[in-house]
């Protein structure tokens, strides 16, 4: 069990920042990737992500520190969160293909056309993928019960706001009034109650 918890914590402190780095580079340098094309951009993006993950792995002892120890109650809550995240993920997969999840339509809109997804989980929140990942990270962090694991999960929250601030202007450019209407109707992260449908921002 200790080895499993260590492995989970290690993945949290290496893969979570590397994933953030992928999406940050993708959105921040989108004009560059469009000029380079899909193959070159994916090669460079994944090379950068791999380099970052390896650098973090090399510093794993300093990053991980000491574990808090196994706590059955925390682990049980973590398992519940992970189960919810899996169900949520399966719903998302039915509506969003992998090429979209890798950002290929953003790099090459004409070569990878994609309609604006507004059904399924996307009928309730504009960014269900990010919410699902947050649930999963919280679940894994509770199972591992490492300080660094909790920190990695918490860092996902400001990451969400950084990425959507970069992503949403691109979606407005690509989908125009269709996205503007969707943005008005559907909350960014948390589903709206019927009484608050007239105001959508968070």
In short:
The protein is 72% helix and 0% strand.
What would you say this structure looks like, in words?
This protein has 202 residues and is an all-alpha fold. The protein has one domain (2-196): Up-down Bundle (Four Helix Bundle (Hemerythrin (Met), subunit A)). The protein is built from ten helices and no strands. It has helices at residues 2-28, 30-36, 38-58, 60-64, 72-93, 98-101, 104-107, 128-144, 147-175, 177-185. Helix 2 (30-36) crosses helix 3. The radius of gyration is 18 Å and the shape is globular. The relative contact order is 0.15. Mean pLDDT is 88; it is low at 194-202.
What name does CATH use for the topology? Answer: Four Helix Bundle (Hemerythrin (Met), subunit A)
Gross CATH architecture: Up-down Bundle
Rg: 18 Å
Give the mean pLDDT: 88
Low-confidence stretches: 194-202
CATH class: Mainly Alpha
Distance between the termini: 39 Å
The main β sheet shows up as: none
Total helix count? 10
Helix content: over 70%
Question: How much of the polypeptide forms β-strand, as a percent range?
Answer: under 5%
Shape: globular
Tally of discrete structural domains? 1
| Class per helix and strand makeup | mainly alpha
Compute the number of strand runs: 0
Give me the oligomer status: single chain
Strand-and-helix sequence, N→C? HHHHHHHHHH
């Amino acid at each position: 069990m200790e080895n499993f918890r260590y492995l989970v914590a290690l993945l949290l402190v290496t893969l979570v920042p590397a994933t953030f780095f992928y999406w940050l580079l993708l959105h921040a340098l989108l004009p560059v990737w469009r000029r380079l094309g899909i193959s070159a951009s994916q090669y460079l993006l994944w090379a950068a992500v791999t380099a970052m993950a390896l650098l973090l792995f090399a510093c794993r002892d300093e990053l991980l520190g000491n574990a808090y120890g196994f706590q059955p109650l925390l682990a049980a809550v973590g398992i519940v969160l992970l189960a919810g995240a899996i169900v949520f993920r399966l719903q998302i997969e039915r509506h969003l293909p992998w090429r979209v999840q890798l950002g290929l339509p953003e790099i090459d809109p004409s070569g990878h056309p994609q309609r604006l997804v507004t059904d399924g989980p996307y009928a309730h929140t504009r960014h269900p993928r990010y919410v699902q990942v947050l649930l999963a990270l919280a679940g894994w962090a509770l199972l591992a019960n490492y300080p660094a694991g909790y920190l990695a999960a918490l860092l996902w929250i400001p990451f969400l706001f950084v990425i959507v601030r970069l992503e949403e202007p691109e979606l407005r450019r690509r989908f125009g009034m269709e996205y503007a209407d969707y943005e008005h109707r559907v909350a960014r992260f948390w589903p709206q109650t019927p009484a608050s449908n007239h105001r959508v921002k968070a």
